[in-house]
User: Fold these one by one.
Assistant:
Number 1:
Amino acid sequence: MKIGIVCYPTFGGSGVVATELGMSLADKGYEVHFITYKQPVRLDLLAKNIHFHEVYVEEYPLFQFQPYELALTSKLVEVVQLHKLEVLHVHYAIPHAYAAYMAKQMLKQKGIDIKVVTTLHGTDITLVGSHPTYKTAVEFSINNSDVVTSVSNSLKEDTLRLFNINVNINVIYNFIDSKKYPEIHESECNRSALATENERIISHVSNMRPVKRPIDVVEIFDRIQKEIPSKLLLVGEGPEIEKVELKTKELGIYDKVIFLGNSNDVNKVLCYSDIFLLPSETESFGLAALEAMAAKTPVISTNTGGLPEVNIDGVTGYLSDLGNVDEMAKNAINLLKDETLLNEFKKNANNQAKAFSLEAILPEYEKLYRNC
């Protein structure tokens, strides 16, 4: 089968999942074509059955903003025709689902029936898509997709609450490739490069947007380090990173925070970690939490969105109400002070992550493609 994948090529969860899905499909013999404005950050172009088609947007002074969705629509029509694609799988509703619908109508006039699968990932529905500026177009695009999926039950419920949806939404969870989280021996996990022997390592991975509440991460860490010698690893870049840096200086803990920027080696970073913090305002699923759990790292998170479907309170970590940094810090401190309990949570986290393995989730997408 020949499949086109449309996604954002960034470090965000939707782009990461779409890229990993495409590469996994290619490994199984599917011909996979990525169609976006830049090579996805985790895409291995040298892998067999992988193709990348860049969407170019011509600059023209008449346009205040470049019409990416028009360029994407044209590229989709071109690639489907040229490579005889059978399915377009678009990740993130805006503007990908709308562009796919337009491409489908254009192709119909040429006698080509391309199937469109739309996967909803989160803020494309809860924050951006539900805005009056976009809501009508997003609702239309979802209802005119051949198949719709969401990455959690929570996101499905939000979609049905925010939009008038007349199609079935299939819940297919995000996944991780367990082969990328092998058993790491003490000799391979060079913690001493980042912290002393008596220090704990706390980590956070995100795109540093306000919705991820990275300032809360700093506040929680500040409380932890007052009780337990610790270092904080921050992975990611985004609009809040300057405020985060200023906050660490204000609290006098700048020397205890390591800013790693964007990284393709998140699994290696997590092998250093004792606790992972995710105090987000909302998470449709919480891929970062799942990656941490796969690396045997307990998660301290909010109880919003799909996080309770991933992080089990009192088993793989702890859940707290949004903004309750005192409770999150207290839970982390109690866990870090009890070595036996910490090791139990690490084991539980790893076991829970196995339920979201590539081997478990990929067949669901394969069945969906065959039946759409």
Number 2:
Amino acid sequence: MKEKTWGLSSSSLKLIAVISMLIDHMGFVLFPQYPLMRAIGRLAFPIYCFLITEGAAHTSNWKRYALRLFLFALISEIPFDLAMGGRWIDGSYQNVFWTLLLGLLAIELYEKKTYLAYAGIVVLVLAGNLLGTDYGSEGVLLIWLLHVVRKDDIRWAAVVAAVWCLCFGGVQQWGMISALFLLLYNGKRGWSGLAIKYAFYAFYPIHLLVLYAAALLRIG
């Protein structure tokens, strides 16, 4: 994919996704009376899925990338369960890092170009629902589809994201707006450094714990 001299970098897309996700989770945990906050939050997931495909394309070590997603999936599970359900452990619903990890594994299998690998992709997609990950099988499928089309043209990735959101009802369709941000992607990394990279990862479990604590204070 060719870089543009203008537009949004990968870091800018991450920031948009983070802000959208924060508004979404604030709406779920603290302000359920404002459904618009949940609608705004629908922008985040398609952007995160696209960024997984970009990370897979540019990483020098996909196994290390997968391990990082796995570790933050583990770290985030208790904060996620507390914020979303008020319980320390909820085996029926898992945080979004698991979905992103399954999507990354599906990408790597796809690149092997074997029938066995393709069968593995089906298993990974089904695992999204079986494990109860956030966005489930549909989320894993979106990551894989974005990877398939991103090499041809960024516009195809935007179309896939928009159609995926359109297939759902209610507030999920607001996610189509994420396609506009993908169209503005310039192919550049943006801000760099380990501190910034891990800050984006760490924000997920930290903000969930903060929201859970805020909810407890309101109840008290």
